[in-house]
Design a protein that fits this description.
The protein is α/β, with parallel strands linked by helices and 1138 residues long. The protein contains 45 helices and 34 strands. The strands form 8 sheets. Strands 3-4-5-2-1-12-13-16 form an 8-stranded mixed beta sheet. It starts with a strand and ends in a 20-residue tail after the last strand. The C terminus is likely disordered.
């Protein structure tokens, strides 16, 4: 069956597209154009998926038809001669912007899926990586190869076609941001690529010059941004209308099934030749090479067009053909032809009227352009139209090529004298270089792009330095582990016979030193892997340490090392020794919301907002204070209600067999302090203990380490590393004093200082040290760097916080070199060749409340971002209910989790009703029987009775899954909740699919999965392949680094943050600002706003005094400037056709 397929279009959810891109209008215009199969476009967008699900119905395998109730009104005005069946295929475009081989890559790709369920799963995975709701063609900081892998993991039936492969800025082989081959782009997954979309600025003969493309089927599609642009390029097939059959034909490329393509004349494409539109320079490749690739007007690089790029990669002369060429048809859109015939614009009323008159007589546009006999065309539209189409069919056209974003012009009639109209003025567009082909060549050549390799560069930090720490050159030479370190780091690694404290400035290789020291202990035979314990503060730091150990040691050896956060270590000890700790083996761990509910149960008279008391309880536990300890009164912001509320809360926890987050360390301390034999066993097990970020420990963590290290102060093999100038958690009870007193605790300890930074430029370090040196508590560690830079610290004042957010977004768009064609065409981007990627940027702020205008600005821009201060997945109500059911498998008598799972006011199960139910269940041996019995209680409504009966029937079946994989348990919970309550909407379903993917990684380890939901933050689940701008509080940024850092809100009142009616710890605020500054590697931008709305109040604060501490010579004041206007159109030049 002959099919015309257009498999690359967009919906109204894409930026810079027509609002008419609805399924109804696509269905209508597909018939007008003569298209049989059209892609839906934009399958990554959740809103478009809802419209697809609502308006389309299954047809042939993997294809969909418009439902009759939508087709009937859409087809009322459709010419009868154009009517034909139209099928939709699920497919859409994704923009990948990422860094590979030291270069920023911008590649657009088409992804196709066989069914709606696969699209939903794909969206779930993509939403973990980027913002898929801001643009129908989302921008992802994800390698093209990794996107292909993700699609195949979602469903092996997914297919992948690189889009418009030659476009300079956003394509696989593009001159400005692409690769030199398919293999270089897709690496080991190249065999899954079987077709390439050639784009508007190239045609098959141009592609035939590159023999490396012979194995791929060349396809063409419209990339339509409005329904009227459908089929300006298309692919011709002879297959059955079915998803599998279409892609099977594209995969094997059999000319009997792949009948060729419908093409633009490539010169009409807007990137055919080289040029610089802003300066009116348009060059053929030889002239570009003669000028060294630089614009002769402004001296900036010109945009190297498709023709030039093809010549660079070609290994065949013009006119060559591959072994199996496919036919092609070069066409001009019919409205443009009519515009030339009548001397009016292609969008004029006259053209529109004549266009539909022709359709009514001759059929769809493609039929008219390709197949209609000339005499019929002449009869229907006149001799001039017939002549124009005949000229087009035989290629007898006048071509004025496009360049640098300007479409070219194709003229089909040669009557220049006396002819008027827009097309004639375009014959020699003013503003172009009129002598583009007659310039005398310069001697230098424009060099071909260098070969880009994926192999990693050596991570050696520096050449070996003279021995300053009694390490002989022989010992360094024989230890590859030590050879990669500097002298200070080697001194720290070599100290293995006494306690060790390492003072490490920002970027000084702290984690590297710690991991190499552990690897050295094991590799040298001093320690068995099981004897080594490494303790961190965050799961991300623990994961990084484990990954680095696996790279230094055999993976099996590295896995035997215990690497834990403080709280995960406490949980493991309590779980392993629950009886000794006075705990049941199935104790549950409460998250923040469960803690609040437990407090309300324990102290029902408290006001709804009792978070202040919870913070005091946490502070008390971190200080190892019992409910009856008189020292509770000495806590900061002490509340006289605290002792009674704390005691009631502790009793409620015990009754519920529950612990909260802070119990995990405090109870582990009590366990070890009161069980000498267990303490001795653990001290014998963990002979070598290393602690990261020691400046941030609180009393409970300090006591836990002292108990594990043992009381022999001289023999304790305890290594701690940190920086007292980066102590920023005093508000949580951390005390940098424990770091400063380490050598008093362990008199035999050695101190090593790491002062060389491998992160920040010397300018950034100098500015940061000018801030921290003002602190009376400064450690006097002078950090230095060999990274010299002339880039100063930027300082920008915005009028408002929203203007500040827009400035940040615009600066990132500039530094990335543009995120879309609109960025380039509108003039928003000055330098499209900028080489940053999204993962290079972090935006830091003092308070989570500052993130809202930033989130809104980034969401509008479509730039992918992640915000650590947004609500975590596990806090969402529709996620908490299935998680509660899983906790009940672990601890069937957990009141809090039964309440979370059961309470549903819409179904008649209120909180008050649950209290009555729980009173009955608490004394019931058989929970299912208790539920069934309560359902028959007089006075129960029919809805409530049905709900409880369903729970009574479900519970035994669910309990039987206690040993099943976590993903199976979760699926059963989600299905049941959907059956007995409102079905999740689109966003909720996506969240639940994300939860399911996370559960699948845990096998049958339910306790591990549930513990992770409490102890891990959203950032710990972040896909490492993603590349997104990070929006972080200054506290959350600790331990991270980025090439470019914005610190927003640099105002007195925010930095330092001055709380009402509370004393400000000015020096901790100063250290916090120092931490933020030193997250930057090469570029630091400090912004402040003249006015800011925060917590509903409008404020106007002066610039932060910390910024004033930086000398003027290190700062560059950035003045506000409007977005640059697009370059003016030269007089007389035709408006862009599209």
């Amino acid at each position: 069956m002959h099919l015309v397929a257009d498999l690359h279009i967009h919906s109204h959810y894409s930026r810079a597209t027509s609002k008419d891109l609805t399924l109804e209008q696509l269905w209508r215009w597909a018939q007008i154009k003569g298209v049989d199969v059209v892609a839906t476009g934009d399958i990554a967008h959740p809103g478009w998926l809802l419209e697809i699900t609502d308006r389309l119905m299954p047809a042939e395998e993997g294809l969909f038809a418009l439902k009759p109730e939508y087709a009937e009104p859409a087809g009322r005005a459709l010419p009868a001669a154009c009517r034909r069946p139209v099928r939709f295929l699920l497919g859409g475009e994704i923009s990948n912007i990422y860094k590979r081989g030291g270069k920023t890559r911008k590649v657009h790709n088409l992804v196709f899926a066989p069914d709606l369920e696969t699209v939903a799963r794909l969206q779930t995975r993509l939403e973990r990586i980027g913002n898929i709701r801001a643009d129908g063609r989302p921008i992802l900081g994800l390698d093209s190869r990794d996107l292909l892998e993700l699609a195949l993991e979602t469903d092996p039936r997914c297919h992948f076609i690189p889009a418009h492969i030659w476009t300079p800025w956003f394509a696989m082989l593009g001159s400005m941001s692409g690769f030199d081959s398919v293999e270089e782009c897709f690496d080991d997954l190249t065999p899954h690529i079987f077709a390439l979309e050639t784009g508007l600025s190239s045609d098959p003969p141009m592609n035939w010059r590159v023999s490396n493309l012979d194995r791929y089927t060349l396809v063409s599609n419209s990339d339509a941004h409005s329904p009227q642009k459908l089929a300006r390029e298309a692919t011709l097939l002879d297959v059955e209308p079915a998803y599998a059959a279409i892609f099977a034909a594209l995969r094997d490329g059999d000319p009997a099934r792949c009948r060729g393509t419908v093409e633009f004349f490539p010169e009409e494409g807007k990137y055919h030749l080289d040029g610089h539109r802003a300066c009116g320079v348009c060059w053929e490749p030889p002239v570009t090479r003669a000028h060294g690739g630089l614009c002769r007007v402004c001296g900036k690089p010109v945009t190297v067009g498709v023709m030039h790029r093809v010549e660079l990669l070609a290994d065949r002369p013009e006119g060559s053909q591959p072994p199996r060429p496919h036919p092609f048809h070069s066409l001009a859109p019919l409205p443009e032809i009519l515009g030339e015939v009548y001397g009016v614009g292609a969008g004029s009323k006259r053209v529109n009227a004549e266009y539909f008159k022709l359709l009514g007589k001759l059929g769809p546009e493609l039929t008219i352009l390709m197949d209609a006999p000339p005499e019929e065309i002449a009869a229907a539209g006149g001799e001039r139209l017939a002549t124009a189409i005949a000229n087009m069919r035989r290629g007898a056209v006048t071509r004025h090529a496009g360049y640098d974003g300007e479409y070219g012009v194709i003229r089909l009639l040669n009557e220049v004298e006396g002819q008027t109209g827009l097309f004639l003025d375009a014959a020699t567009p003013s503003g172009r270089d009129a002598q583009r082909n007659s310039e005398e060549p310069f001697p230098q050549e424009f060099p071909a792009p260098p070969l880009r390799l994926r192999a990693p560069v050596s991570e050696s930090l520096s050449p070996l330095q003279p021995d300053l720490f009694n390490l002989t050159p022989d010992s360094v030479a024989t230890s590859p582990l030590l050879a990669s370190l500097n002298d200070e780091q080697r001194a720290a690694v070599a100290c293995t016979d006494r306690p060790l404290v390492i003072v490490a400035g920002p970027g000084a290789g702290k984690t590297r030193t710690l991991t190499v020291r552990i690897a050295h202990l094991i590799a040298s035979g001093l320690a068995a892997p099981e004897q080594v314990l490494a303790v961190t503060f965050t799961n991300k730091a623990a994961a990084e340490l484990s990954t680095r150990l696996a790279a230094l040691l055999a993976p099996d050896t590295a896995r035997r090392v215990t690497v834990r956060t403080f709280h995960a270590l406490g949980a493991a000890l309590l779980r392993e020794h629950a009886a000794a700790a006075g705990l049941p083996p199935d104790f549950v761990i409460l998250d923040e919301e469960a803690r609040r509910r437990m407090l309300r149960l324990a102290a029902p008279g408290l006001p709804a907002a009792a978070d202040g008391l919870l913070r005091l309880i946490a502070a008390a536990k971190n200080q190892l204070l019992a409910p009856d300890d008189p020292a509770l009164a000495d806590l900061p912001d002490a509340d006289p209600r605290l002792p009674a509320v704390y005691a009631a809360y502790a009793q409620a926890l015990a009754a519920a067999n529950a612990l909260d987050y802070d119990d995990l360390v405090a109870r582990a301390v009590h366990l070890l302090a009161n069980d000498a034999p267990l303490r001795a066993r653990l001290q014998a097990r963990y002979r070598w203990i290393s602690v990261d970020e020691y400046q941030d420990v609180n009393l409970a963590q300090y006591r836990l380490l002292r108990l594990l290290a043992g009381e022999d102060e001289a023999a304790a093999n305890l290594c701690v590393i940190g920086d007292p100038d980066q102590a920023i958690y005093g508000f949580r009870g951390a005390d940098r004093g424990y770091f400063l007193r380490f050598r008093r605790d362990y008199p035999a300890a050695v101190e090593v200082r790491l002062s060389r930074s491998y992160r920040s430029s010397q300018v950034i370090l100098a500015a940061a040290q000018q801030v921290i040196a003002r602190s009376p508590d400064w450690s006097a560690l002078r950090v230095w760097s060999e990274f010299a830079s002339t880039v100063k610290v930027d300082l920008y004042r915005a009028p408002t916080d929203r203007a500040e957010a827009e400035y940040v977004v615009h600066q990132i768009e500039q530094m990335v070199g543009g995120t879309s064609y609109f960025s380039l065409d509108s003039g928003r981007v000055d330098d499209p060749s900028a080489a940053r990627t999204f993962g290079d940027f972090a935006v830091l702020y003092r308070l989570g409340a500052q993130s809202q205008p930033l989130i809104e600005a980034f969401a509008r821009s479509g730039i992918p971002f992640q915000c650590a201060s947004q609500q975590a997945l596990y806090e969402l109500p529709h996620v908490r209910r299935p998680l509660a059911l899983l906790w009940l498998l672990l601890s069937p008598r957990s009141r809090l989790h039964w309440e979370t799972a059961l309470v549903n006011p819409a179904a008649g199960l209120t909180a008050a009703a649950f209290d009555r139910l729980w009173a009955q269940l608490a004394d019931c041996d058989d929970l299912a029987a208790g539920l069934a019995s309560y359902a028959q209680t007089p006075g129960r409504g029919s809805t409530s009775r049905a709900q409880l009966a369903a729970w009574a029937e479900f519970w035994p079946r669910f309990s039987a899954l206690a040993a099943a994989p976590v993903s199976e348990q979760l699926a059963a919970a989600v299905d049941f909740l959907a059956q007995t309550g409102p079905a999740p909407d689109g966003e909720q379903a996506a969240d639940l699919r994300t939860l399911h993917l996370r559960a699948a990684t845990c096998g049958d380890r339910l306790a591990e999965f549930l513990q992770a939901t409490v102890l891990q933050s959203e950032s710990d689940w972040h896909d490492p392949r993603a590349d997104r701008v990070a929006l972080l509080t200054l506290h959350a940024a600790k331990g991270l680094e980025f090439p470019v850092v914005f610190v927003v809100g640099c105002e007195d009142g925010l930095l330092p943050y001055r709380r009402p009616s509370r004393a400000t710890d000015l020096e901790e605020e100063r250290r916090l600002f120092y931490v933020g500054m030193t997250r930057a590697r090469s570029h630091l931008i400090l912004t402040h706003a003249g006015q800011r709305v925060l917590f509903g109040q409008r404020t106007a604060n002066p610039i932060s005094p910390f910024v004033e501490d930086i000398e003027q010579a290190l700062k560059e004041l950035r003045a506000p400037a409007p977005f640059p206007a697009p370059p003016p159109k030269p007089a007389g030049e035709q408006l862009s056709l599209f």
